[in-house]
Every structure is written in structure tokens, then in C-alpha cells.
Design goal:
alpha+beta, 50% helix, 3 helices, 3-stranded antiparallel sheet, globular, 60 residues
């Protein structure tokens, strides 16, 4: 289980970092914790599942 930070998730999903933070804030992408700066950290598998779901619903 790999843990990804906001920048890594944004690169994987092809979106801006601010949007990743908004997804976490709205609980659309569940964070596993926070880093030293207070930014969310995500499980890689959760991010992959989110990407599949978002693509099925019409894209990111």
C-alpha cells in the first residue's frame, strides 16, 4: 500500500493540486491522514478506484 501526496495524486489524475485538495475536503477522495504541512495523504489504491469511477461517470 503506497501513500501518495497531493502533487502525486494530481499528476496521476492529470488535474491541478487545488482540485485534489477540494476532492478531499468534499470527501469525494478519502484521505488517509495529513503530512507535516497539513495537506492530505492518499492510498494509491483509493486513487486508482476514484479514477476508474470518475471516468465511468464522464471524466475528471
Amino acid at each position: 500500500m503506497a501513500i501518495l501526496n497531493v502533487a502525486e495524486v494530481a499528476a496521476f489524475l492529470g488535474i491541478q493540486e487545488i482540485r485534489v485538495e477540494r476532492l478531499a475536503r468534499e470527501n469525494l477522495l478519502v484521505a488517509n491522514g495529513k503530512d507535516d504541512e497539513g495537506k492530505p495523504l492518499f492510498d494509491e489504491e483509493d486513487v486508482k478506484r476514484y479514477k476508474i469511477l470518475a471516468e465511468r461517470l464522464g471524466g475528471l
